[in-house]
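Task: fold both queries, return tokens.
Query 1:
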Amino acid sequence: MKNLDPVDIVDELLCDFASKLGLQLTDDERVVDLISCSGCSGWGLDTYGNLKAELIEPENEKIGFSADFYLDGDPNDDTSILGTSILVKVQGEVAKEDENWEVSEYEVMNVYFYPADEDYLDEEQLDAILSNTEFYQTFLDEISSLQVLNNLSLPDCNVQKTLKRQIYIGAITCLETYLSDAFINTVLSNDKYLRSFFKSFKDFKEQKIGMHQLLEHADNAKEIAKKARLEVIFHNLSKVSNMYKKTLDISFPSFSDIARYISIRHDLVHRNGKTKEGNETPVDDQNVDTVINDIRSFVEQIDKALKEKENFKQIDELDNPFF
């Protein structure tokens, strides 16, 4: 599979992996909920499409991808009401191991009956993000709640272990939500940042449009940018740090530990807390506390840089009111 571009590599992998992934997707909690209320039976993978892929860590030979998977069920005239097709939006990564490319991780981002008004679903997600203008305070509230939960001691050891895992997963989710909401709200509030995003975002660089489309794209610049950012995997810190730097001129603090926590979160979500080698990852009060504090410190430094940018912008506007 050498000398193939990222899309070709992932496409070839998915051709072999799709059937297995289709079975795994039908076990996803959100898919199960739709299947249970569909009234259909015999659900399975029909096809996949809308594949996007790019090299995210050249030195480690990693590729990030997103794709739409279509599940079909057999209709029952008496009970089939909502639909016989389900669209599952997936984001993930493939990595090269022992000279072979493999799907190393994936995450279900959205699930709904198909066909559906996808623009409406995107708008709902965007509305939720854009309404969270106090993104740092939201982060502090959520991460503080997780800290309180981590201080709880439950008599049942198994329940205690499950609680710690969920807190760990929740801490990474808080980080992703902050990075997403902070970036999107900051860029959309400043035309300078919006232009920088269009200049630097890889998907836009590779996109070709005709002269007759220029005005249309200019008029809809914010909407195009909004939807593009919904496709970003915000736990891919290498890509996100690059976006923050090129668009906002903000450098991330060192995130090697945070990246390791994200990798462990993947094991907790997809392997029930075990590594690829089958070793269980210990999750207890102390290491959960470390994860929470490190993420809090990481976000605090990024938010401080954002506020300094905002303060500079306000001073600049006062000094140059006509520019």
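Query 1 returned. Query 2:
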Amino acid sequence: MSATSHALFGRIKALENRLDAFLDLLSDSNIQFRAGITYFLEAGGSHAAVFQQKLKEIGAIQTRAENLKRQIEAEFQEWVLIPELRADLVGLIHAQGNLIVQFGEHLQHFAIENPVFSLELHKDIKLLGEQVALSVESCVMASRSLFHDPGSERDHIHMAKRHHEEAHTIAMRLKATIFTAERGLEQKIHQRTFIDRIWHLALMGEQVCETLAMHASPSSPCFWSPMFSTCASRFNPNFPSRPEGFRIANRGPRPV
């Protein structure tokens, strides 16, 4: 193998490592958020030391994720020469990074506003947090599969959607319980807002998976791009070569 090939594979491996590290941070922020909600409910609100610790940890994750995201985007800008494909890949990383940001911001809202939930709501709120965590983790697994085991991401995408649907069901049940209880309207609206914020994270995870599903299709330019196919073939010798006659058409600028 030539020195140029060695250098190419070295850069591919470095990019793979950064992508895996970025997805690790998404998974970590998901875990910390779920733990933070549990501690908020069980330890007496936002002033609990265990909750504050989770708040600090998720803030540190956000900082590391932002730095990694910038490095990955710079690699995409340098390697991917097709404008439309480059925009899609950068958009995917942005969406995943925004999910990490939202985990931190939503936990900050709990810290600042310190909502009060009656004990009868705690069980379903924890169940909601569990389904959100499972949905986002399925999103992380689907993202890994796109590089390491193309084709297997469909199962993870399906599970992300199922967990999102379950999260939506639980969120609706919680809101029904909230608005039928004997409490002030202001408190009901405040509680509903936080239920929607938690559920929205599962929705964001599902939306990332929908973007992944488009990229994972053999009809997608992303699937056959040199970076993706080279990465995938190193982990999966059965990864198909680009079909003869397949080409990536320049479809012109996207409508604004």
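Both queries returned. Flag for query 2: The chain has a mean pLDDT of 80.
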